[in-house]
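Design review, sub-item: ligand-bound model
Attendees: FS, YL, KQ
YL presented the inputs for the adenosine monophosphate complex:
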Amino acid sequence: MENKKRLLTGLKPTGDLTLGNYIGAIMQMVKRQEEFDSYLFVADLHAITIHQPPEELRRRIKEFIALYIACGIDPKKNTIYLQSDNEFIPSISWLLECSTYYGEASRMIQFKEKSKQNANFTLGLLTYPVLMAADILYVDSDYVPVGIDQKQHVELARDIAERFNKMYGETFKLPEPLITESGVKIKDLKDPSKKMSKSEENPNGVICLLDTKEQITKKIMSATTDSEMQVKYDPENKPGISNLINICISLTNDTIQQVEEKFVGKNYGEFKKYVAELVCDRIGKIQERYEELINSKELEDILNEGAAKTKQLAKDKYEAMRQKMGLVR
Ligand code: AMP
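KQ shared the predicted structure:
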């Protein structure tokens, strides 16, 4: 691991993980773990910038970790931890806040947009990019894979690090955003004009990784298609069928053409049954591993190990910052 570049990913435990998350994000992460020294944490301190019912948060934190591992995230290739297990992160965040200008934080696009949606926003919504900077900087991360909407936050982390280094001496590595080409966008089964999302109100268009086989089959068999009878990839005119084809090619090594050829002269019912079996098979395997993990000592051990390792890293960074800033007796 030593000469590999370090990469950090945070997962916000809000909403239930979907087939869209699996195909669009988790499968890509599983590929990337071969190349990098990866750190993966459940960003529970980020989740609470918006109120979360404690019982739900408690359930989701473990569920997320167990599901990611069940999906192929390898605890031997990733340092996996819970953000709130590491009390040095908020301490580092405070020291960094005092090197961040209000103007900078309030110019973040996410803050501007989200604070407009709800006038009663918390202070955490303004300062969470600094907490994100603490997450990134204490592990000396080289890269942070983010969607385009989070790029600005990684750039802010870099600016804060640069300023701190100039003011107090070399302390932080400057991180870079790694703009991830996410996999294909999986669409809602009921309304294929929008993406399958964990925040969607109608659950019939969304496949969750913990749905039963019966639920999955029912949702796929009743997916919106079109009035033709041809399994053909045409996202503009046949968004429903094209979405199902995308699901197939993402879960197998087949090409679009191979899927189309398999169903020449067959009806949509047969095609949907095939897709449902593919999805049930994959999610079934994920759930088997999930069940082994969810209440296991193995999962506790993984989180304890991650907490111990990252606490030491964060403590060292915090102490170095204190020394440099003159926060000593
Ligand atoms: P979200 O669930 O929106 O917080 O997204 C978490 C990650 O999953 C991001 O990398 C998204 O790009 C990815 N993702 C979420 N929904 C989908 C989807 N329907 N298709 C593909 N990727 C998705």
